Amino acid sequence: MLRSKEDSSPALFRETCRRNRLKITPQREAIYRELGRLKSHPSAVGVYRIVRKEFPSISFDTVHRTLLTFSEIGLVDVVEGYGNPRRFDPNLEQHHHLHCIRCGAVVDFYHRGYDNLEIPPAVSREFTVLGKKVVLKGYCRGCGSKKRTR
User: What is the phi/psi pair of residue 53, to 5°?
Assistant: First the structure.
């Protein structure tokens, strides 16, 4: 089920937690809220640094496990890995990513043509495809201009 950013509401959070028999705690609500505010596809460390300001006794492990649980119940996606720590994406709308191989930025973009890519029959015979995401790798504007000036 695809959801838009507008659907990333406290009500959706509570409904999804209840449906999955996940206890709704202030810490989980804060983790979900902060993840939704961040546009940078943060790692668990990034979310932890923000949430611990509100909950000083929260552990990194709790934040990390909570984000993985959110991924399992469909509240967030895990961004494609590139050898770095996992990053999380609260945008469950169909979209694709630009990945800067220098600074590590991951930027969302939308392209209907990529949404409609045909799955090769050989893949369909061997694999049940649940979604498609195109990842373009290269240099973001900032890193591209630094590369040219060197």
Answer: -65, -35
Both tokens of residue 67? 């984000």
- Domain 5-78: which topology? Arc Repressor Mutant, subunit A (1.10.10)
pTM: 0.80
pLDDT (tens digit, 0 to 9) for every residue of the chain, 150 residues total?
Answer: 333 444 458 898 999 999 999 999 999 999 999 998 987 899 999 999 999 999 999 999 999 999 999 999 999 999 877 667 889 998 889 999 999 989 888 999 999 999 999 999 999 999 999 888 999 999 999 998 776 555
Q: Rounded to 10 degrees, what is the CA torsion of 133, 143, 4, 71?
A: 60
In CATH terms, the superfamily for domain 94-149 is: Ferric-uptake regulator, C-terminal dimerisarion domain (3.30.1490.190)
